[in-house]
């Protein structure tokens, strides 16, 4: 993955690599108009896919790199709320990480937006 990216990273976590990639591409399509810098962040071939501890190496994480903003955060929240069984991982430039499921996104419709717009002063991990 591109560790030099200075913006936000949103990773789709799924045991099925094809579904993870499909979901990430769908989310990228939804975000493309709001954030022209958004791009797909695919795992390196043969690399360890399960970098976020949900099921170990069998879990595929496909990410998006973006500059964020409240409108982008709202689009991510809406997309995730439609898929209650999906888990995404949002990582801010300061290193703080938020793990959120579609169910949690439905219950708290500003969770991702608050996380992305936080100044990251304490650097804590949420979720």
Report on the architecture of this protein.
By secondary structure, the chain is an alpha+beta fold. It contains four helices and five strands. It has helices spanning 17-32, 70-81, 102-107, 111-117, and strands spanning 8-14, 39-41, 60-66, 87-91, 97-101. It is globular.
Give a short summary of the structure.
The protein is an alpha+beta fold and 127 residues long. It is built from 4 helices and 5 strands.
| Count of DSSP-assigned helices | 4
Percentage of residues in DSSP E strands:
15-25%
Query: Mean pLDDT, rounded to whole units?
Result: 76
Poorly predicted sequence stretches spanning 5 or more consecutive residues: 47-58, 121-127
Q: Could you give the order of strands across the largest sheet?
A: 2-3-1-4-5
The major sheet is characterized as: 5 strands, antiparallel
For the termini, the CA-CA separation is 22 Å
SSE pattern, N- to C-terminal: EHEEHEEHH
Question: Which properties best describe this structure?
Answer:
127 residues, alpha+beta, five-stranded antiparallel sheet, 4 helices, 32% helix
Topology, element by element:
Layout: E1 8-14, H1 17-32, E2 39-41, E3 60-66, H2 70-81, E4 87-91, E5 97-101, H3 102-107, H4 111-117
Helix pairs in contact: 2-4
């Amino acid at each position: 993955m591109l560790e030099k990216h200075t913006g936000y990273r949103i990773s789709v976590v799924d045991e099925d690599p094809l579904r993870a990639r499909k979901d990430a591409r769908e989310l990228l399509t939804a975000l493309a108009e709001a954030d022209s810098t958004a791009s797909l962040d695919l795992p390196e071939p043969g690399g360890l896919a399960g970098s976020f501890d949900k099921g170990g190496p069998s879990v595929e994480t496909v990410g998006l790199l973006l500059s964020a903003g409240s409108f982008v955060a709202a689009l991510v929240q809406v997309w995730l709320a439609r898929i209650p069984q999906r888990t995404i991982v949002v990582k801010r430039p300061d290193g703080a990480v938020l793990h959120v499921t579609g169910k949690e996104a439905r219950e708290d419709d500003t969770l991702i937006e608050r996380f992305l717009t936080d100044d990251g002063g304490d650097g804590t991990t949420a979720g």
